[in-house]
Amino acid sequence: MTGTTRFGFELRWADQPPAGSDEQRTNGGLVLWLDSAHPWNSLEPNARPKPLEWTWLDLLEWLGDSWPALLHDEGYPADSPLLPHQPASLVDAIRRVEGDEPSQDQLDWWAQHNLAGAPNGLGLADVVLLRLGQTMVIGCAETNARVVLPAGQVLDVLRQVGDELAARLNGCEERRGVRALRRWQDRATRSAAQFLRFQGLPADDLAELAAGADLAEFLGYDPHSPQATSLQMAARSLRQVVPVSVVRMVTDQIRQAPAMLTPELDTLSREASEVVVEVLDKHPAQQGYHAARWLRLRLCRKRERLEPADLLGRWKVLVVELELPSSRVEAVSFWGHQHGPGVIINPTGRFSQTMPGRRATIAHEICHLLLDRDTELPVGQVNGLARRYGHEQRANAFAAELLLPGSVAALASLEAELETQVTALTDQYGVGRELILWRMYNHGQLPASAHLRQLLDEIAPHQATL
Fold first, then answer.
1. Selection from 296, 299, 314 nearest residue 404 by Cα
2. DSSP annotation string for 412-450
3. Which long-range contacts (CB under 8 A, 24 or more apart) does 445-448 make?
4. How much is the average pLDDT of 403-426?
5. pTM
6. Looking at residue 16, what DSSP letter applies?
7. Distance of alpha carbon 277 from alpha carbon 19, whole angstroms
8. Which residue, 351, 378, 400, sits at the end of a domain?
9. What pLDDT, on a 0 to 100 scale, did the predictor assign at position 385?
10. How many whole angstroms from its chain centre is CA 302?
């Protein structure tokens, strides 16, 4: 048996040692488990899963061909119009919701991430692996299973299965078996060669970014690590909103940052992750509120004013100010075994150029550092990017609750003189007018007054989750 309690395989062989043709060498029974279900296996009368008999040379071929994508490909296909919670429902969702067939890129992604494509012709339940930062989501719509595990752990399970299959082909001479064995054995070399393909950037942008240097080395690529580096993710995320020249400014700053020891932050991160597990079924904003309330209690500061920058200093997080020729980037948090954790603040950002906005920006990045370092990409999302997986909504809500508790805003919303209350809260908590009004609206105990609705109508409603 190979795997964890939530995901794994068991292969049973009729002949030991293997003999015969390449296909005969890999004939055997396979049991796949995902949570408490066995999506590919029927049950015996004793309720034990019945091994699926097949030529598992198919699985070794799939593992060898798909390995670079499983190692490097982050998230859904770039052109996907939908981001379903259940990875195994992607193709059906596109057909049902969009009323269209998936694009070729989407179908290629599906083929490389769907384990059911390995045993050709069996029509098995789709079991799809979706890489999200340092985690792997494994989904099966048919059994309604959705398992989230460390990506390295999942890849190690697949590696052990591949090694077991490859061992049965040692000494094989037939063309198909030789090719499958070679593809498996050279997967690391091919993954390194295809590394740039999964960076989500045009070749011209990558060449300009590296400026003549070896790009893989420039981005800190480690062929033995399943984790993307902070440099890789900074380049991928920032390029969506700013020119390559600005991306280079940020990556150069990250490259200069040393790896930091942050024991207090590490302890708080572990505790915060356990706290958020309690509300993972809630909207991302509710998760953010919950985590910020916990942190305030943990710091014994239930209703007092908190200074986000002081927290970063106390936790030994590197903070760098870098003036960028773009207001679309507020800040970038980064982490990993090579650099950080740290936060780069752009003093010319749309919000971070004011003190209330700067405090909100830092509070937002604190959420990424607390909750996303062990699960998400090694660079906090950049303000202005599409909120693909809810982490930005969670960080916005966290920042709002950390800076101005909802209970305080709710009490203030009951007072007759709203303008007086807004001014008082601005002075006491150091937050902007817009944040205060939205906090009053979203956390007030009574329906919003006509005056509050009028004040909200006068500002842009882009912080509705505050």
1. 296
2. HHTSS-HHHHHHHHHHHH---HHHHHHHHHHH-SSPPPH
3. 445/410, 445/413, 445/414, 446/413, 446/414, 448/413
4. 88
5. 0.72
6. S
7. 49
8. 400
9. 38
10. 30
- Spatial distance between the Cα atoms of 423 and 368, rounded to a whole number of angstroms: 30
For the chain, what is the domain count?
A: 3
CA angle 219, 222, 228 (to 5 degrees): 65
Cα separation of 279 and 302, whole Å?
20
Together in a domain, 445 and 339: no
The whole-chain average pLDDT of the chain stands at 85
What confidence category does residue 372 fall into, taking pLDDT thresholds of 50, 70 and 90? confident
At residue 74, what is the residue type?
E
Whole-number Å distance between alpha carbons of 106 and 412: 50
- Check whether residue 267 and residue 367 sit in a common domain: yes
188, 214, 242 - which closes a domain: 188
| CA–CA distance, 383 with 361 (Å, rounded to integer) | 9
Q: Which domain holds residue 347?
A: 263-400
Collect all residues with Cβ–Cβ distance below 8 Å to 148 and sequence separation of at least 6: 135, 136, 137, 138, 375
- Cβ neighbors of 355 (< 8 A, separation 6 or more) are 430
> Is 131 strand, coil or helix?
strand
Phi/psi of residue 10, each to 5°?
Answer: -130, 125
**Highest mean pLDDT out of 131-140, 268-277, 326-335, 358-367:** 358-367
Q: Which residue has the tokens 């050279």?
A: 186
Same domain, 443 and 317: no
Cβ(276)–Cβ(287) below 8 Å:
yes
Residues 396 and 410 placed together within one structural domain of the fold: no
Tens of pLDDT, residue by residue over 289-313, are 999 999 999 998 888 999 999 999 9
Compute the distance between CA of residue 228 and CA of residue 232 in angstroms, rounded to an integer: 6
CA-to-CA distance for 70 and 113, rounded, in angstroms? 7
Helix ranges restricted to H, 170-322: 175-185, 187-193, 203-210, 215-218, 230-238, 244-256, 263-277, 284-298, 308-314
52 and 112 assigned to the same domain: yes
Q: What is the pLDDT of residues 91-100, one digit of tens each?
A: 888 888 777 8
The reply to whether 212 falls in a domain is no
Same domain, 431 and 349: no
